[in-house]
Specification:
Blueprint (H helix, E strand, L loop, with lengths): L15 E4 L15 H6 L1 H7 L3 E4 L3 E2 L11 E5 L6 H13 L3 E6 L3 E3 L3 H6 L13 E2 L19 E4 L4 E4 L6 E3 L5 H17 L3 E4 L29 H16 L2 E5 L5 H7 L9 E3 L21 H15 L6 E2 L9 H4 L7 H13 L4 E5 L20 H13 L4 H11 L36 H5 L5 H14 L1 H5 L1 E4 L7 E7 L3 E8 L5 E4 L10 E5 L10 E4 L4 E7 L1
Parallel strand pairs: 1-2, 1-15, 2-5, 5-11, 11-12, 12-13, 14-15
Antiparallel strand pairs: 3-4, 6-10, 7-9, 8-9, 16-17, 17-18, 18-22, 19-21, 20-22
The structure holds alpha-D-glucopyranose (GLC).
Length: about 550
Amino acid sequence: MTSVNQDANWWKTATVYQIYPKSFCDSGAKGTGDIQGIISKLDYLNKLGIDAIWLTPVYESPMVDNGYDISNYFEINPDFGTMDDFEQLLALAHERGIRVIMDIVVNHTSTEHAWFKSALGDLSSPYRDYYIWKDPIDGGVPNNWQSKFGGSAWTLDKATNQYYLRLFAEQQADLNWENPKVREEVKGIISYWAKKGVDGFRLDVINLISKQQDFADDDTGDGRRFYTDGPRVHEYLQEISDSVFQKYGSVTVGEMSSTTLEHCQQYSSLDGKELSMVFNFHHLKVDYPNGDKWTTGPFDFIQLKKIFNHWQTGLNGKGWGALFWCNHDQPRVVSRLGDDQQYRVESAKMLAASVHMMQGTPYIYQGEEIGMTNPGYTSIAQYRDVESTNMYEIMVESQGVDCEEMLAILRQKSRDNSRTPMQWDSTQYAGFSKAEPWLEVASNYSEINANQAVSDKNSVFYFYKKLIELRKEIPVITDGQYQDLLPQDKAIFAYQRTNAKQTLICLNNYYGEEAECVLPTDIDLSDARVILGNYEHSIGVARHQILRPYETKVILVDN
Ligand code: GLC
């Protein structure tokens, strides 16, 4: 029996695997995944070599936003199993040396939560002030803030003629963190899970919890500047960290929406006063032309490199970031920045190496390790995601966008692209379930599945396994300084990481044609060796070389 790594900084050389339980594995015949399904795949995860799993929410929930609308923070959603199942998962993961990270959603609760049910329609409810209520202005909404899922961020409580704030779906009411009782409740919730032995927490949209209290109209935007990285957010995080995270030694990762480097340096500062690390999303907006997600277009490669450079150099020695391309809110990266047809395997490996060799903690989202693709749905009836269906309605029905055009946008941008059932094998429903899944399986499951990947030594799976191992073996991957070697090159992303002893160079061709790579002359390549590549006959190390389509090479040099 192995046990979990006891080093307090274990997460700096670790890799985390994200599980979206609804789509991971169904142990029964329901068509939705569950905790016993996760347990049945722990050996698969162990083989991959990951150090921790992050479970997206498994609490009681009406599932309007697939669990990000929590109605009871202390119970497991019966669709996923029981508390016994959860405790079994925790024990069996720990036996394999795998830690467990839970998702904590405390910017908002479900409107089915007992607090909200008491607060709604009752000005004297002890829970009324747990939420954010405002009187109408000129007979309408209190301000022009927009929901992240489209439309106004306010919903009217008819009985009291006040609006409540909800930055996401109507069924996700924002909590009022100004109320100290809310903060005490949050501490109680997190302590409950920490006491059970949960090792860490991923904090959902945590930089939105402190709203500017004048709730002013935003004359230049959708309101986000009044609640993103808001006035008291650092104070609140320090309070929670001091009374819970530090006490239990929990690892924490905050999801930071539209944030800045300066705030993230503070959220993840090395003194550990707030969080261990942060997710930021700037690198995943390079395919939002003029900042607009709901349109199609190529990605801006030069900008991508610029963003990585900004964050890698800016966090070094100050904070810590999560490294990732994929999660349950993002399309599949191989379809997004790679080539999910001819060069699927090559581009999936290249994209993996290009973020895993940076500084931070890598996160792998289920299916990414086998190069799963977007499903390419052709009808709105195939979508389940509340954001996608809302946007379809707004853009097609209210704004008159052509429905075929909107479907093309969803094929690239919808969150359901990553939520399709995990492809385990080539049997019906990809081995995910014995019943018809809640969301249609991608039709390529007979070629792309975990069984196939595990039986092929050149698969994407073994490439990820190798990346996970390298992080543990080579310190410069954790502590090396980052330098972009060819910031203006139109096809090649080349960077180096350096510490006193070694230099690691990561070369990546981001396109489907051969590209010439000329490294700067001040790099000493005399002792250089290729430690990882995605083509069988690696040409070796030279200052001037041709990189094949989507080729990646990781080179180590002893200084
Ligand atoms: C986060 C989650 C996303 C959810 C939203 C509201 O961004 O990752 O899935 O819809 O928060 O909770």
